[in-house]
Automatic annotation (TrEMBL):
InterPro entries linked to this entry: FP_C, Transposase_22, Znf_RING/FYVE/PHD
Domain FP protein C-terminal: 253-305
Keywords: Coiled coil
Coiled-coil segments: 92-161
Descriptive protein name: Kinesin-like protein KIN-14J
Origin: domain of life: Eukaryota
A Pfam cross-reference name: Baculo_FP_2nd
Amino acid sequence: MPTCSSCQEQLPLDYVQCTSSLQCKYHFGCSGIQESTWRKLGSQQQTWKCQTCRKQAKGPDNNAPVSPNELRQFMASVTEKLAPVEVIKDTVQDLKSSVEFMSNKYDELLSRIEEMEHEKHANSELINQLQLSLKAKEKEISNLQARMREAEQYSRNKNIEITGLEVVKGENLMSVMENIARIINVPFNENDIDVIHRLPSRRGEGHSPVVAQFTCRKTRNLWLKNKKKANILSCEVTEGKAVTRIYLNTHLTPEWKNLLWQTKQQGRPKGYKLIWFQENKIMAKKDVNDERAIIIKNNLDLEDLV
């Protein structure tokens, strides 16, 4: 069994050995190095020398040349110590490559964002142009519709629409008109009436309206003015027995008629007592003494009824 070079006692299986030419062996307690430190040396244990051998190697008169074996051991030790540095260099290089890759991707992303911002700006301008064009077209269409509505209503400016008139078999509408003229106190002349006929009956409608077209607008307006002076019952002007009241009104187009109905539906609850059609517009007043009337020409104007 080997003995300790310091205390000369036998060594256990695990001990410290110097790598010098003397091959000194020690207990951990005699070696001058702690056991934990020795174990941490790992492969460097192959180059470790005890204090005695190191002192001899550093002696002032020690000019002995370094042996090839010692030189190889020294170089191996240096190489081993530099190995982690090479690993770090590889890691740094990998990290550098990753950073360059991410930098390139970031530049690509910025470039794409700039392109998208440019496209967004271009699309926004295009949308604005389309919206302006659409508004212009809508205004043009609205104007055309208004002109068509006015033209259609103008074609009826000599007409009167009579509602509530009982349907009598074999009725003579010209005679009915003569009776109405007598009650509202206007001159009657058959030549003043160009056409008179009853409109087709619709489902759910009691008595279909009668439309009379005068030869001149002035005569029609006189009838509409004087009709306010009398309440006329159907049985007073026909051979029927119905006691329903009849009404003489301007012959409106379906569109104007619907707008007039909507105006009354929304205006009555808000206190508008006077609602009538006049010269291609609907007028609304809360009181007969109001100086200014609300003018309704389309559905948007209904918002003015406050």
